[in-house]
Records
---
Amino acid sequence: MDPAPTSGALAPSPVLSRRRNHRTVDRVAQILELVAREHDGLGLTEIAHRVGAPISSIQGLVNGLAAVGYLSEQGRRFVLGPAPYVLNLLAGRPPVRVVRHDDLETLHGMTGCTVLLGVMVGRDVIYIDYATDSPRHAYATETRIHRPLIRTATGRVLLANLDKRELYAYLNGLDTEEQGYVDGFLQELTAIRTDDLATTQGHMNPDVWAVATPVREEGRVVAAVGLAATPGEMDGRQNQLGQILRTQIRSLSHRTLHP
């Protein structure tokens, strides 16, 4: 398990810096995500307010995104356009193909835990499907809340399967609060890779423990599935639950990915 976070933990390598963000790309991504979250869309003034930028600097980006189909204007409000869906069609696959919703429901029935399917988006993990009786976990999943990779079991599994350069760049880019988790993660890194299991005990929320395993498609890690429960529900069972989870997810690898 990770020890309690310590302030000022050193990143593993001062040489490898994090991959640099591009201000314009960041702003475009922010606009698209904001609009995607609003069923009725957003007006230009609302977008500028939420982005924290003057309308004059946002208008060109919004108009440009609308011109190429990433946004659509409906009654002076902008909604997500067809272009993002077309990209997914061109790619010919959803983010995760081997794990289906009924697999998560099966795991939920077997373990009694919340089951979460997470993917890495930038420097965070986002849950794209779940099976749970917990309104809190349902809310976190359905609203696509970003969670720090280093503080979630699903995120740690995804981090452990990055190549060294990407991993070190991520760790070097963590803010002061999250740097406190680096030493514990690095101590567990070899075991996570060997066992295909990562655990957390209250790293994100003191009332939540979790265990996660990677999802592989054609040899590549594309997602992670995690089990989450209260400390009382998981204490003494975390390793056993991890083995059940790993066995179930590995058993799905026989599925054909191409129709």
---
Amino acid sequence: MKEQRAAWRAGQPALDPATLVLVDETRASTNVARTHGRCPTGRRLVMAVPHGKTTTFVAALRADGTVAPTVIDGAVTGDLFVADVERRLAPALRPGDVVVMDNLACHKRAGVRRAIEAAGAARRRLPPYSPDRNPIERAFRKLKARLRAAAKRTIRAVEDYRGERSAAFAPEECRNYFRSCGYPTATPTREPL
């Protein structure tokens, strides 16, 4: 595993940031809430947080923004992930793109590979245990912090908020996520879709 991570790190400078598309998913719940707050000295902070419902947010990140964001009610399954790649991600890919995913079982499904290759893109897997090499992890961290601050309490509110917030990642911010993970960060030269 150590060798795989070292090999990935050594190959990162050769990757074209304009073709990289990093895919991942994250869980969120309607009961997410801030873990700290303020109240008068000597008093305990009390805040109601209802029982939550879990959702999964699936998206891809390019050096210039997010691609194909989807909110799934509940956990992501292999069939749901394949359907999402076929319907949302593959149409957003360009010939020559390199789709990078971690080693989650649903990412290894044959339907995922077929849909990506049919779009003219290549597929690569991150080394095991390498979230530090996936820029979308940083974007998800920020998205979850915003979601906690907004305190959305219904599935629909979470979906709406995640949709508008994921679109709010500016190109410079996305390039910063790439840079912090060790990827080259030249301004993408490809025209947007």
---
Amino acid sequence: MSIETKVVADSVSPQGIRLSTLSLKYPRWIHAEFMTHRLFSRNASSSRAVPSKRLRALEREYPLWWGANIPGMQAGGKLSDEQGAKAKAIWDRMADACIEGVAELAELGLHKQWANRPLEWFTSISVLVSATSFDNFFGVRWHPDAQPEIQELARQMYAALQSSAPRHLEPGQWHLPYVSADEANSLGLDVARRCSAARCARVSYLNHDGTAPNVAKDLDTFTKLAGDPNGPPRPLHASPMEHQATPDRLCNPADPVSWQNPAQHGNFRGWRQYRKLLANEQIARFTPPA
């Protein structure tokens, strides 16, 4: 089983509030638990977006250990070596059947948003997460009661953050995942924020392949996410714009919560999210289609 964590961007405000963005890979079966943490801004690889052939080629994931069933949500001791080997063989047989079925559905022409679903239970998911606080996550998930795989994810995330040195940013300076300081200076702030959002969105397609970024493609992707300002209005796909942020200012330095722009923090603390600066970043009143 492979769990991977990497700090993509790490910043700290004048008030000492740290904003960190991490790239993660973990078994998809713990993703629902990860999604319960509402202080996180996230983007993740999507079965609707990734071609079936690429998903079928993903490394197969297994439990950290084969635990015995007992009443309750936690496993008992480990299965015997013989039982563990049998469990893995059954797991593999089930996965093989799903891979074969997905290939047949893809050959039939069924769209990947349905055809890919049977692969999810034994493959990994790639996730980008940004937050100004991970403490509750670590407290809940790095705990003996948690699923073993999410315990290991929490341990690795904690270690990655402990070994990273955040960059000090002043108000007006921006936390921009996947855009270096030199590139941001070259592109200018508006283009740099758009490029960062587009690159954050690409985790949905598993396209962080190490190739050189293409600014024109980034801007085209951003337009698909945010819409054309000169075109007809439509819903924004705004979650990739939550990872970019700049420190907020305090109205009263003696009052640590007297922020100038608290409505722009979103799920962060003390940082203004790029998403909150965009017009129509959320639908305030829904009208059903005709």
---
Amino acid sequence: MALPLKYYNSSHGSSISQLPFMRLMFWTFLILSIIVLQLAFGADVRILFFAVATALCGFLILNHGGIYDAVSLAGFVFLFNTVFFAILLKTFLGQAIDSNLYAPFISFLIIFIVALEVLFAIKLVHIIPVGKPLYKPHNDLSFLKYLAIVCYVLGVLLWILSQLYHVDPRSQFSSQDKGFGGFATIYPIFYMGIVAGTAFVLLSSNQKKSVNKWLFMMILTGVIMGLFESRKVIVGLTFGYYFFTSFIYRHRITSRQIFVGILLVLFIFFIFAPIVHVYRTDLWFLPFSQRIDYMKSNADKMIQSNYLFDYFRRVFNQEYSLNSYQYFGQNLILIDRFATIQHSDLIIDSFMSRNEMGAELFIQGFDLILPSFINPNKRSISLGDQITWELGLRKYGVVGFPTVPVIASSFAAKKWLGVLVVPFFIFLLLFLFLKKVGADIRRNVFSIYFIVPILVGAHEWSHSQYIVRLFRLFPVQIILLLLIVFFYHKVRAISIRKSTLL
């Protein structure tokens, strides 16, 4: 049963007193327990202070609008995936939070500063008028069915075209071949099919079911797409959209979904991730048609135990690690992606003893907004690659899209000035965008569609990746969705007019 609305959202924000007493006691007990345990593990008191202060900022951020407010949720999850999860896991493993970092004091201080910036940005966005939201909740079953079918079919077709006309940036760097990325900009509309399909199944079954055979086919399509592209994030988004939509509509996750989620984690960890990492180097440089043949001819070999065991041996021996990220004492593969403090820490420590890369780094991302037929000379190399090449962390010319979060990329550009300015304006723009799309995500499939990729990946994005999404990817997808909605209402109005005449 859902809690009363006042616990989740308020147009004027909310106060700590509005939270249920037991929930407040739980969080207080958890924080105090972590403090006591970390002191016992030998954590630096100063660093522990910044960690607790950052946690308080996160609590205030989430409490400002609640879990059904896209702005508050995005801000909280960013901090959770940056440092909160890391603190919880380090405590569980019996490790001090400042162990296995290169510059722990500076890193935790900077994250605390960024947490304050996120909090101030939310407060400012709350008072800035943006007009009516672009999208309102649409829970008419006929509309959801239409939206699911159109977005699924259109998304799959656009994905196929994106693969046919795509040249991987890793080969673009060493050749004159250029791909067309326009289809890749809009094929994520495919995920709206999963969102609308999940909402349709839930509403049509009075929340008794969250999946049917057609929705299962959509989810399976997402897994296949991730396999052919050798990208774990596609599978993560596919299931992320399904589970998050189900949670928003039901206000809970069922025991069956928890069981399926555990099986999913095991599948990704032991089957999907090894296949992707072992064969991705070959698949990256193959055209789409040859990729299909390659997958068919290697299907049996991909699931042989000796190949999978060899993969795990190399992972735990750091042979697949771009850098020696060992914040938890060893390479934890996928788990490391939800503790980006270690990625920022390495960049921050490296630039503490060398010159910054300069303010020109801030404009990177803006040159990627225009399509290639207008700006044919735009960069194909990510900002993360440039920064790690500059520091000598990776071999020059080896393109791999390493994780360089906005905190790290801002520090690389202008050090302290960059950290004080760039994240604030990035999150201000992000929160304004979410507010305009529709901050209230309750039963709003459009708000769900835009918030999920932010929840899944924003903690790993550099400032240039934020710019590309805010000024290219999201606007194009907004226009496409508006056209899809307009076409539905236009056709429906015509049919109603005809039935009236008859």
